[in-house]
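ugh ok fine here u go
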Amino acid sequence: MNIKLIRILFFCKIKYLILFFATVLACVAFVYFKGFSFTSNAEKIDKKIIKFVKFTPTFEAMNLAMKKDIESNGNINWIKILAYLGTKYAGDFKKFKPKDILDYIKKIENKESAEKIIQNQKLYNYYLEAYSAVLDGFLGKYKTKKEQKEKYGLITFSPIAKNFFFNHYDDFGAPRSFGYKRPHLGHDIMCSVATPVIAVESGIVEALGWNRYGGWRVGLRSKNKKRYWYYAHLMKNRPFNSEIHKGDEISAGQVIGYVGRTGYSAKENVNNIDKSHLHFGLQIIFDESQKEGKNEIWVDLYAITKLLEKNKSNVLRRKETKEFFQANELEILS
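structure:
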């Protein structure tokens, strides 16, 4: 073989070997320096977060559990009671018997071990985390400006102000067709236009404005970031309390807006809802990846709305502005 040809072939092989190793090194370097973001994303997707919650405790179960918690001044945790019942019934609260709560409390008072009381610890842990995400912070210590006496009880409010009539039924999951077919992921509270809408708990205003489905709406995020309260179909021309803005910190019981029938329109400030009502929703967020998209978790609020009726915000109206405001603010201590 020609020596010149051998040299050419040799240098070609060297060239391709250099290119090959350079490519390998580049890939290794890319994974080393950039791979952390891939790992982070993978961990975010694979992280063992709760992806589904079917909140089924009845009003009767929650009411009795809450009553026992308040009577004990917080020593008997009502969410742990409900998690125990969720485990016992496998989430089917149609099986609820008040005796089951009384028996559980008796066992706690007799200092029986958790292992003996709770037969399925793994299932119990799921219900405890899920129900805590929904209900944690509903009870606490507070003072009223009028009395200045420390109390313990319900520190979250009905979404409808005191002395304003409303009615409701369990419509969670009912079919909706505007835009596309979908289940109703909220709770409709039927009441008159201009009825004051109340912040259920303290939090941050995350959304304030128009949505083609919800019309004028407010989104309020709880301080622990686990709950996103959604109030929609607010009043045409005057949907919001004029004093609130996106990013504001809102207090429990504060007036945030007014009931209307806006929505079902790409055009702002349009009444396309047949009957005035508040669309009241609660999204549970264990991880920010669940905030929007296919992994959203929405809760049936029928029983919770009945429970919150026990604490309604008293409001008064300013003659000059015709704006409603909270009359007896709570000083929440815990």
